[in-house]
Each structure stands twice: as structure tokens, then as C-alpha cells.
């Protein structure tokens, strides 16, 4: 490589958006204009040395199956960092996987739940200490931007973003959050609900991954006249050996109904805080749903029925947060409203 080319490489500006999710980590490269990484938020560590053995998909395969010498953990809980050192190692591994040993110090946009404490924000800044600049944007703001909605205008828009660890609900106008609420009820809660339901009703113990498969296949927010069914395998607690059952959509509805309505009621709470001058905008524009939890069958129908406001699913429900974080780099006025740290 000649010296001129080397200097040109050093001048390249790199901007990445990170959706630091409880279930998955997504990274969007602004220059490439695409999501360059989507991996589970899981790390496998050597217990003795603390060294990272695997991250992402490889580490997720080890959950519940590791020997005593290996620890497979999720360093993020309810959308925030539970273990800073492991989160930092995980991010370094992911970024190294994409870009290799790079001389670039990127600008980083971290997408976080609406209600994170100052201590949690500091942990987020510290987790990407190798970046040139670090911005923090609320997931609700990022999700609605990533859904293709222009929030820079004096017009009210509303989003319900159901992630893995938290649900963020917000009304936005002129780049700002006008009213919001964040609750610790989301996709992982649905998984826990399913595990408990099957254990209590059938004395069958299933793992988190099995519960997630059931949720994705049978999860519904409205009871069905002709419900679909699937086979579920686990450990029969009565006989102490592997067993299987057949479970239906309506049973999964029963399992997650309470959590569904907690999200519905939180949405109603935010609507009650809506300033009168924006209420008509929300009626006209509707509510956009994003995040993996929004993919529960008929959830948009349930929310629309309960709020009396039209509800629609984002075109990119799984990627809307990280896409919005990337698009935020192009909004100068928005950047000025975000908390930022320069290294």
C-alpha cells in the first residue's frame, strides 16, 4: 500500500449505530448503509481466566449446555448493561469481527431504553471507550426514525417499541420526546410466561430457546377459533425424564395475556399524557409498532381495539431501532439534543 492511499484511509470517517439489545446486538454501518451484524447478546467465558471463548450465535448454542469450566451469560438485562467488562469484551469482539484490526476510531450511536439512569449511561459510554465520539439516543426516538417517519416537523407521532428486555412507548414532535414510558415487559417476558405456563399446566420444564420458538410460532394476542398447534419437548418433572406435549395458540395466548395487556395499558398511559394540540396528529398518523415483540400475531389489532387509534407495523420492525440510530447522524439538530461524549 502506498503512502497516499494510507493517508486517504486515515481520513475516512466511520459512523456506526449499535442497538444494544437484551436479546440481540445489531450494528449498522452508515457508510455501507446496511446492518453489518445481527447476533445474540451472549458471551461464553472461561471461568478460570475470564477469557472470551465465544460470542453471539456460537455462545448462544452453549446456553444451558456448558461444562463447569465455561460460563455462558447474557451481559445485558432489561436493555441495560448488567456486566460492563463482559459487555465491553463482547462489543470489541463483534467490532473486530466486522472491521478487523482497524486504525479508525468511529463515531458510535448507542440506542438505549427511554428511562436509563445516569449510572447506566456512564456504563454505556465506557463500554465503547475506543470510539472517537459516542452518542446516546433513546430507542423510541431511533425506532420511529428507522420506520421512515420524519420527527423534525411540528407534528405528533407515536411509537411502541417492544424489544427483548423493555418496551418503550413515546410521543414525539420536533425531534423531541414529548411524553413517554418504559416498562420491563417485552419479548423475554413472553418467553418467561410460556416457560411458567407449560411448567404449571403440564409439569414440563422447557428452556428459554424452546420458549422463544413457541412464541414465534404460536404467539397470538387474540384467541383463535381454529388454533394451530405444535409439539414441545422438555423434562417431565413428575417422572424425571424427557417428554413432549402438544400445545395450541390459545394456550400461548393465556400464557402471555397478562403481559400483553401491561403493554396495552402502558400505551394508554402515554396517550393520556398527550398534549391536546398533538392528539389530533396521533389520530391521523396512528401508532407505529416496532421490535421483535410487535411480531406477536394480531398484536396490532389488539392495540388498535383497546386504544381506538389505528396501529400499523413498521416495515422493518426488527431493524428499525438500529436503522434510526444510523439515520440520526444525518440530522444535525437532533444530534444537538443527544447526550454525547468525545474521547
- The figure for the number of domains is 3
Please report the first level of CATH classification, the CATH class of the largest domain. Alpha Beta
Q: How many E-type strands?
A: 19
Poorly predicted segments: 3-11
Oligomer: single chain
Principal-axis shape: flat
Q: Could you estimate the helical fraction of the residues in percent?
A: 25-40%
How far apart are the termini? 29 Å
CATH topology name of the largest domain, in short, is Nucleotidyltransferase, domain 5
Provide the gyration radius in Å.
21 Å
Helical region count?
Answer: 12
Description:
- There is one protein chain.
- The chain is of the alpha+beta class and 343 residues long.
- The chain has three domains: 3-142 and 323-342, ATPase, nucleotide binding domain (Nucleotidyltransferase, domain 5, 2-Layer Sandwich); 143-185 and 262-317, ATPase, nucleotide binding domain (Nucleotidyltransferase, domain 5), CATH 3.30.420.40; 187-255, Alpha-Beta Complex (Actin, Chain A, domain 4), CATH 3.90.640.
- It has helices at residues 3-11, 57-60, 84-99, 118-127, 139-146, 187-202, 208-218, 249-272, 276-285, 299-307, 320-327, 332-337, and strands at 15-20, 24-29, 34-40, 43-46, 52-55, 70-73, 76-77, 80-81, 107-112, 133-138, 157-162, 167-173, 176-183, 204-205, 229-236, 241-248, 287-290, 311-313, 339-342.
- The strands form five sheets. Strands 3-2-1-9-10-19 form a six-stranded mixed sheet, with helices on both faces. The protein has a five-stranded mixed sheet with strand order 13-12-11-17-18, with helices on both faces.
- α4 (118-127) links the parallel β9 and β10.
